[in-house]
Predict the 3D structure of the following.
Amino acid sequence: MKWKQAWIKRLIQITPLIVIFLTAISLSLNTISSVSSSQGHMFALVFAVFILASILVKPLWLKYGLAVVAFVSFFNALPELSFDKLISVMYLTLVLLAFLLPSPIPVFAAAGYYLYITPIVWPEESPAMLQAILGGVIINMILYSLLAFYFRNLRKENVANAKLNAQLNEALLQLEHMAYYDTLTGLPNRQSLMKHLNTDIAQQKPLAVLFLDLDQFKHVNDMMGHRAGDQLLRDVADHLRHFADSSCFLARYAGDEFVLLCSYRREEEIADLAERLVRSFQNPFHIEHKQVYTTSSIGISLFPEDAEEGETLIQYADKTMYSIKRGDKNGYRFFSDIKNEELLRQVRLANDIRSAITKNEMSIHYQPLVELETGVIRGVEALLRWTHSDMGPIAPTHFIPLAEQNGVIVELGEWVLEEACRQVKSWHEAGNAKLTLAVNLSIRQFKSLNFPSRVLNILEKTDFDPALLELEVTESMMQNVEESVPILNELKRHGIKISIDDFGTGYSSLSVLGQLPLDYLKIDRSFTKELTSDVSSASIVRLIIDIGHSMNLQVICEGIETGREVEALRQFGCEYGQGYYFQRPSPPNEIERLLDLKQLHQSKV
Ligand code: C2E
Ligand code: MG
Ligand code: MG
């Protein structure tokens, strides 16, 4: 398909040029061969040279200048032409003028000249013949002008498209670059870390993941303000850079969490490094002329001993770090020390999740999606909650991967969709007829057998308008375009909308995105978090919004926590927002209260 398009483009580019060249050559030859005097020959030659020069030059004033000289010579040679050559020569000049010059006026002028001169120079020709020729001149003048106009427009459109493509590609490159670095500290970010980690794993090198978290960061942030918090993070990043030698890769994972990936030969080397790291925090940092003390907790997981996938290694190191934080803090620990209790917990959760629905432990919270311009609640996102009878609330980021692993997610996802449709339908009936519902999908659910018809069945069962349903997919779910596009198209055929969730956190992003039939782009909350903290973060968000718009998508920003973020996003033209600033995910009765107030957030926007 691509080569076909490229050929059509090329043809549009070169057709006018071919027409111009062939016409100019045949006109020159016609004129030279049909004039009889040497003066006539000279005019014809001047015409040939100047017209070819006018085709080749670029500046418009020069093009016009050379064309004028050429045509003055040509018209001087004209009376010498034999009558039988005249007709073809007249038509050829009209073609040439129409294609050569961007304005139709010279064509009209030449046609007018022919209408005037023909009966004067060849008075002996019959009036009927003259009339036929002059009629032909007029019709040809109109036809050639229209044809040239059409080609010119096609060409312009092509150039504009090429320009847009170039801009988009440039933005893509810029975004991809910015997306790999943390703007606050200049360190590689989470995406970069995962890429590095997966590459190292592919090379089968023994690897240690050191997950480091500052123990007093929240305290500094709360007591001394965000600016001091940011300064501390920058200083800690500089401090950690001393430890990142050729065998270690340092990245900022999120907030006050940093990760070191280190290759090693003996486990003691890593223990020694962790020991030195923990001790190195004994000295204070100097923030805003004050001494700030902070300690660190480090969880360590090892490849290949603990796990063989990057995500799992990070998760294990993170969990180990938390187990230190729950205790004395300020220390390090290996995952193998907590492995047994953690694995037991995982197995238990994975088992319990099967019966969680029937035991009534699952519920759905809703988070409003607000139109930034007006503050009106446009819809809600359904977010699943699990309150385990013994262990209390379990975060969806924890249990959804477990449900995904053992396949329960398909049943769970359908339960969420049905419950949420029923709930939102009742809000429609209570007077919020246009309220939309966004539901998250997981990959296993998306790829389950007959997924679109399962969704449609639920919509029918709950009498829910498909046009008010938005299904949220992620970039990683869409990697196999041939597989996902037909599913998405089938859903869209029934009016269901598709959003791309957590945008910016996937790896292959834009190239894949362009091929999907999407409606909304949801910017991940990690971008929003730094939106107002520095200029380059803001420019990433702005770029994503612009890219979304250039793909005809509406943009939703997640994780809005402050009024300043709302202000910035409105200025960037972002249509919708979601976040704690407006409302945390809440149980249905709280959402009902909000819906009754409807414009509650007007004052906040
Ligand atoms: P998500 O779809 O990106 O959902 C938004 C998450 O951001 C929610 O976390 C929400 O509580 C949180 N959030 C919203 N506003 C703010 C804010 O201002 N600041 C911060 N820091 N966070 C905010 P939650 O509920 O923990 O859900 C996490 C993820 O779990 C969701 O991310 C979604 O990917 C997944 N999930 C939740 N429910 C379902 C479900 O029913 N099915 C599937 N497959 N996945 C679900
Ligand atoms: Mg979501
Ligand atoms: Mg999201």
About this structure: The radius of gyration is 36 Å.
